[in-house]
Amino acid sequence: MRVWLRIVEAHYGQRPIIYTTPRFYEENNLKSFRGYEYWLRTTAKTPREAFPGQSWKFWQYSATGIIPGIKGDVDLNAFSGSREAWNAWLARRAQ
Question: Which residues, at least 6 apart from 86, have a Cβ–Cβ distance to it below 8 Å?
Fold first, then answer.
C-alpha cells in the first residue's frame, strides 16, 4: 500500500485520502500511516468507537441512504469540520 500511495501522490501532486473499513485498518496496521487523511467507513459504530485514536476527514456512516432523484441506496458521508474548513479543504485540494 505504501508503494501505491507514493505512486498516486507523485502522479497527482498531493497525498491521497485513505478510505478504509475497521477490519482493513486493523489487518493492515493503517494506524502506522502518518501524514494521511482518512475516510473511515463505519456504519455500526462511531469513528471513535471503531477506530480509537484515529483522526478522520470523512466518515461514511451509511451505505443505504436515500437521496431524492437517485434510484437505489447511496453512501452517506460527513466531513469533519465547519463549512469554512470544508471550503479551505476544497481550495487546498483543487488542481
Answer: 79
This prediction's pTM? 0.91
**Residue bearing cell 493503517:** 30
22 Cβ neighbours under 8 A, 6+ residues apart = 42, 45, 50, 51
User: For 2-53, how does the pLDDT look when each residue is reduced to its tens digit (9 = 90+)?
Assistant: 999 999 999 999 999 999 999 999 999 999 999 999 999 999 999 999 999 9
Interatomic CA distance for residues 12 and 67, integer angstroms: 31
Three-state DSSP class for residue 79: strand
Residue 63 neighbours by CB under 8 Å, 6+ apart: 41, 43, 73, 75, 76
